[in-house]
Fold this sequence. Notes:
Elements: H1 2-19, E1 38-45, E2 50-57, E3 74-79, E4 82-86, E5 88-89, E6 95-99, E7 110-117, E8 120-128, E9 135-146, E10 152-161, E11 169-179, E12 188-193, E13 203-204, E14 212-215, E15 223-230, E16 238-246, H2 248-263, E17 282-296
Parallel strand pairs: 1-17
Antiparallel strand pairs: 1-2, 2-6, 3-4, 3-7, 5-6, 7-8, 9-10, 10-15, 11-12, 11-14, 11-16, 13-14, 16-17
Amino acid sequence: MKNRIILWCLILVIISQYSCKDFSQIVEIDIPEHEPKLATLLTATSLDSALNVLVSNSLGILESRDTQPIKDARVSLLRNGHPIAEGIYREGTYYYELFTNAPLGTAAATYRLEMSAPDFPPIYAEQKMPAAVPILSARIELDGTIDAEGRRADEVILEFQDPAGSTDYYAVAMQGLRRLSAEEDSLYTAGTVALHSNDPSYGFVRNFPYNLIFSDAAFDGQKVRISVYSYDHLGEFSGQLRLYHLSRDVYLYHRSLDLYEEAIDNPFAEPVNVHRNIENGYGLFGVSSVSEVVLEE
Length: 297
């Protein structure tokens, strides 16, 4: 027994000596020279007739300078091959404005975003407008559900028929007039209502008219009942409930952007590439159709 103890001690001493040696190695990596390209972002809905298109330039991984607004770009939006809007630069910003004669609408159509600027290769992307999915019913139940921590919240319930035989992507949003609190003398406020869900398959979106997205992976082709909730007081609410039928590119952009932001400053997170669909450049062009109903409590 004593000999075994001595043997193990010797093994530990040898391991500790080798572990103290420097096994580090410096590896030099040749990073390809970056070719600057145009970068853009445009998500359009069937309700839109005025669009803001972000236009900027890409940067290499080692570049520390900021991106710059591109003031001399040509930005065009086409429907089924026919131009419907030309971009107008908004001075002092990164944006171009596109104005169409009427809202884009829900009719089947292929939209194409084209963009060019001096010293950059031209870029483009195409999207097909998804068919509108009507909301069959919708209602508000005050204190009708509980959140993940057991707290009461106002429930919003909607039903719709999901198209069969295809993968579909959705977002849900509410906007209108509501009280700031349940107090009788509370003031009213107008704007977007923040919605939440206990369903872990739902994605969260920031800085868009909607903040919840989901797919039909669990209910393809079925009549579905969706339950979400809000901490905003919905008593005496008056406004619209909207169901967005998103293109696949819009959905993937939102999901990957959320993962990317969650990974920031997390040394244990896997690297995340934000989804893009721009040919010969960077960014996203996406479309969605919108169905809406008036909702009052």
